[in-house]
Amino acid sequence: MELKDDDKIKEIVQLNPFNEREYIKDKQSIMDIKIKTEKDEYIDIEVQINDVDNYKKRSLYYWSKLYGESLGKGDSYYELKKSIVINIVNFNIIEENDKYHNVFVIKEREENTLFLEDLEIHYIELEKFNVEKDINELNDLEEWIVFLKECNEKHDCEIIEKLSSRKEEIEMAVKIMNKLSADEIEYQKYLAREKYIMDEISKKKYAQYKMAQMKEQEENARKAEEEAKKALAEAEEKTLQAEEKRKVEEAKRKVAEEKRKAEEEKRKAEEAKRIAAEKKALQAEEELDNMKKTVALNLLDLLDDHTIAIQTGLSIEEVGQIRKGHKSQG
After folding, report:
1. What is the pLDDT of residues 200-212, one digit of tens each?
2. What 8-state DSSP symbol labels residue 301?
3. Where are the domains of the chain?
């Protein structure tokens, strides 16, 4: 971040190096300096000690304000000046790499072509800075970081004095930090409050967003629970219906079985009745035959075989057999 001759600081346009907690309850420590270079480019340097919600969008928003303010009333867009925002933060904000200094510009996504040089946003993350060098070996950016860390943490006056003696810009920064009139402080208090209000609005909206997200998650969980209960009830209903159907089918099966048994008993009874009738008929037939034979036997001495056969219904052969048996006995 070494400055060329035409990049040298021309004017401190706006400065706010003070601890906001002196003026606004429950704030973070901030230093905010607006600089105009010899090329009439604007640089906004902000030192942020504590993490702030949506800080990336916040810095882009303040860059847009800085860029818009570079255009005077009635000027053409050609007069818009390059605007640089340098965010020096005491927390990690760029999680994609371990570099303590990241620079963002507008480029074409695929070709990587620079769109305009007017936008430049720097993030210098003090927590990532871990360079152990002698003070005489530090480059320009490292000198500034050591200066800021000493101001914020150790307050080593000897190191700050050495840095001031080596670099005119750091000496100017020390003077700026020690120089503020009462009227200027009041003005900066107003600007700080304006920034604070924007931060608070962002926090509230973020909190509202998280609350809405939480409510949505709770509603989704409630709906999921209701769907699960409904599915369970439907499953239980289907189980009951299946059980009832099984019972009905079982009852039908039992009725069919009882009917089959009754029909079987009826068949057996009819079979027994038939057998008994056949037996009785056979017995009657045997008794009738015996009676015929007895009558024929008694008529043997009185009638001839043909007449006996006609009278008894026996065949002539049967009568002949009876007569033959009678003679053998005589």
Report:
1. 777 778 788 888 9
2. T
3. 5-220
